[in-house]
Amino acid sequence: MRRAIALADRGGGFVHPNPLVGAVVVKEGRVIGEGWHERYGEAHAERNALAACGEDPRGATLHVTLEPCCHHGKTPPCTDAIIAAGIARVVVALEDPNPLVAGKGIERLRQAGIAVETGVRASEAREQNRVFLKYITTRRPWVTLKTAMTLDGKIATRAGDSRWITGEAAREMVHEARSRHMAVVAGIGTVLADDPLLNARLPGREARQPARVIVDSRARLPLESRIVQTARLYATLLMHAPDAPGERLEALRAAGVVCRTCAGMDGRVDVTDLCRQLGEAGIDSLLLEGGSELNHSFLSARQVDEVLAFIAPKIVGGAGAKSPVGGAGVERMRDALELVDVQVSRVGEDILIKGKIDVHGNH
Fold it and tell me: How far does the chain reach from its first CA to its final CA, in angstroms?
C-alpha cells in the first residue's frame, strides 16, 4: 500500500477533480503489475495496474488506495475489470465518499466472492486525497493560502518591493503547488503592483496550467497587464462585485477574460460566494497568492483550509511594510487562528511552515 500511495501521487495536477489513486497487483509475494490514475478522463489506477501485469493476475491480490468505482463515468466500472481478471483479494486504503460509490464498490466485489480488506494506511490516503474528500462531499474547493515573508514578517519593503523574498528552491515549490491546484487566486492589488503571470513553470517537466482567478470588485484589471494579454492562452476569470462598470467588463470579455458576478460585501467581493461559484464550476482547489487584504478576506470568512508559509532569513524593517494578513486583526491572542498538523522543513535557505487551519477550535 505504501507503494500504491507513492504511485498515486504521480497523478498530482493532472486528474482533478478526480482523486489521486494508485494500485499494485501482488501474486505469490511478487509485484506483477502497478499503475495509477494518470489523467482525468483516462483509465483508472486499477485498470492500468491490471494492464501492466507481466503474467496472469488470476488469484492475485490488488492493493488500491481508494475504493474501486462501480459506476459508468468517463470510464467503465473498475469493479468489472477486477472481477474479470480473477483477482482473489482486494486491499483498500480508503472507502470512497462519492455517493455514486460509497461502499457499493466493495459490496460488488464481495458479492463476486472476492475478499476485501479496508483501512490499510487509511490516514495517509486520507491526507493525500484531502482535496478530493472535501470537494466530493461539499462541492467547495480546498483553499491553500501561500505566503512568503521575511524573518520580521514582511511581504514587501515599505516601498512595495517584493522580488524576491524567497530563494529559487522555494519559488520552484510554489510553481509545483500552482500545477497541483486547479486555480490560482490573486487580488487586483497584487496584479497592479507586480503584473504577474500566475502560470506554472517547471523547467524540464510538464506542468498543468491552473486557471487564473482575479478578485477585482470594480473590474480595474488593466487590458495591458500580462494576465489579460495571455487570457486566451491560460484560462482567466475575473470575479467582480455587482456594481462593476459594464464597459470595463465588456472590454475584458473581448480580450478573453471570463467575468463572473459575485455577491458583494462592504463594497468587496464576497469570497464565500466566490468559493461556492468556483466549486459549482468544477474547480476543486484554490491556491491563494494574493496580498494581505485578500488573505484577510479568506481567513475571516473561514474559507482557508491549509497554509504554506515560507520564511526567508532576511530582515527589512519598516513599520509601514505590509505583513501577510491585513484587516483590523484580533485583539486577544486567544482569538488568533491556529494551525494544526504543523510541519516545518528547510527549502533551500528558507523555512516552510505548513499546517491546516484548526476548524474544530474555538477561534
Answer: 37
Rounded Cα distance between 59 and 10, Å, is: 28
CA 341 to chain centre: 17
Helix (H) / strand (E) containing 61: strand 61-66
Alpha-carbon distance of 19 to 48, in angstroms, equals: 15
Quick check: is 349 catalytic?
A: no
- For CA atoms 70, 12, 208, 49, give the dihedral sign: negative
In the chain, the amino acid numbered 288 is: L
Q: Are 149 and 35 in contact (CB under 8 A)?
A: no
Parallel, antiparallel or unpaired: strands 30-36 and 22-27: antiparallel
| Active-site pick, 34, 46, 289, 306 | 46
Grid cell for residue 77? 466500472
Q: 116-172 pLDDT, tens per residue?
A: 999 999 999 999 999 999 999 999 999 999 999 999 999 988 888 888 899 999 999
Residue 277 phi, psi dihedral angles, 5° rounding: -65, -45
Query: Residue type for 7, please?
Result: L
Rounded alpha-carbon distances, angstroms, from residue 278 to 132, 219, 300: 15, 18, 19
pTM of the model: 0.91
Name which of 305, 241, 314, 295 is nearest 273 in CA terms.
Answer: 241
Strand segments, DSSP code E, in the chain are 22-27, 30-36, 61-66, 89-94, 115-118, 142-150, 183-187, 211-215, 236-240, 258-261, 264-265, 268-269, 285-288, 306-312, 339-347, 350-357
CA distance 258 to 245: 15
Say if residues 155 and 148 touch (Cβ distance below 8 Å).
Answer: yes
- Would strands 183-187 and 142-150 be described as parallel, antiparallel, or unpaired? unpaired
